Amino acid sequence: MARIIGSILSHIPEILFVAAILLAFLSRKNHSLDRRFLDWMLLLGIGVSYVWSGVFHVFFPNVAASSIGWANSPFQFEIGVADIAIGIAAILSFWRGLEFKSAVVIYIALFCFGVAVGHFYQAAATQDYAANNFGVLLVITLIQMVALPYWLWKSQREARATS
User: Fold this and answer.
1) Pseudo-torsion of CA 150, 111, 104, 144, nearest 10°?
2) CA 108, CA 63: separation in Å to the nearest integer?
3) Which one in 10, 39, 124, 142 has a CA-CA gap of 20 to 30 Å to 158?
4) What crossing angle do the helices spanning 12-26 and 136-162 adopt, rounded to 10°?
5) 118-148: per-residue pLDDT in tens?
């Protein structure tokens, strides 16, 4: 049982990503599918996931660093606080309008781009293929980097068309 719980806890970002997609399909909100994808991904795929990640960087820096294939450093605290901050903003955006969501999406898209570049560089320069450096989380980061601005754009188009 401890092994199962440990496996679930170590895969929270992936679980939340899939849950966001499923909830977007199942949601009864009066919005388009693109808007529901945007909302649920901001709430779960970014919001809760980034708060989760931030907590590990701040309170369990050795665990967070080793899962990425890095040594612990003061950087863990800084990225942890940044993750928690954007996670909270993303969670709040679930209940806010497209203007608020726009600010969160712009930050996340740029942040994800920087994260992806850094992880590709680490893989190429130092052969760091640790699971959280060059694995499923990198794929999710790349998807979010492209999908969130797309869903925002589609949602804004829909909002303009209906007003």
Assistant:
1) 40
2) 24
3) 142
4) 30
5) 999 999 999 988 888 888 999 999 999 999 9
